[in-house]
Amino acid sequence: MGETAGMRYWTALQAILQPMVVSQSDPIQRAADLVVHALAKGHRLYIYDTGHMLQRELVNRAGGLIAMTPLTFDLHIDHTIAHEAPRSRPGATEEEVRGYVAYALKQADVHPGDVVIVASVTGARVLPVEVALQLKTRGIRIIGLTSREYSAFVPAQHSSGKKLIDFSEIVIDNACTVGDAALSISGFGDRVGPTTGISAAILMWMLCAEVVERQVGSGATPRVLESMNLPGAPERNRTKALQYLAHELE
């Protein structure tokens, strides 16, 4: 019996991840410098993810930065009659997206000098580009997490003709190939096994590790969460969070 599909997927992942972590070392180092400098000045660190997992993976995790703050907004309208099949509806226009983003960012506690990690697999769709554009105009520092290869393959959907890469001060490449899915199954036409969730998580945890090491080296006290399952951890985490917020107000 040959190698199983699961093991072939793992092999495909290794082929992507090992070169990725080497090639992205420099942008991760520069991103860590940016984040540490911003936090030292009392600014905040946000994650805005149009993908699938980072706002859960990076926020409130054991070993993660207390400073990592989700930036999320959603407009949900439920007006379906019971037992009625949902009817197709037109998508939002770019003008509507622009207004929606402007309202959301106005309500959000984001200020000039803050850092936002904007994650988008291609960085070509209207919403992440509009978010990045408006963040940029507000003086927010942007770290783009995207795929250079996939971004170059697809056309820009925003009327500006720009993509997330164009607004990012630093770009961290998630090494996503065109189409994302990495594995072919004999006798089946579609590829399976996406890579971007795993690659994005690895890159961001590398960034967090670099931030903590730099804070320690500069004499600052990193605020890192402990597992809530450890005795006394909830109280210690609460104290660390209050200390972090107090530093912001200094």
Kindly state the percentage of residues in helix.
40-55%
CATH-derived architecture: 3-Layer(aba) Sandwich
Tertiary shape = globular
Distance between the first and last residues' Cα = 64 Å
Low-confidence stretches: none
Give the number of DSSP strands.
Answer: 5
Main sheet characteristics: 5 strands, parallel
- Return the string of H and E elements: HHEHEHEHEHHEHH
CATH homologous superfamily placement: Glucose-6-phosphate isomerase like protein, domain 1
Tell me the β content: 5-15%
* Cα gyration radius (Å): 20 Å
Structural class of the helices, strands and pairings?
alpha/beta
> What is the total number of structural domains?
1
Our count of helices gives 9
What is the CATH topology? Rossmann fold
The average pLDDT score comes to: 90
CATH class wording: Alpha Beta
Strand order of the largest sheet: 2-1-3-4-5
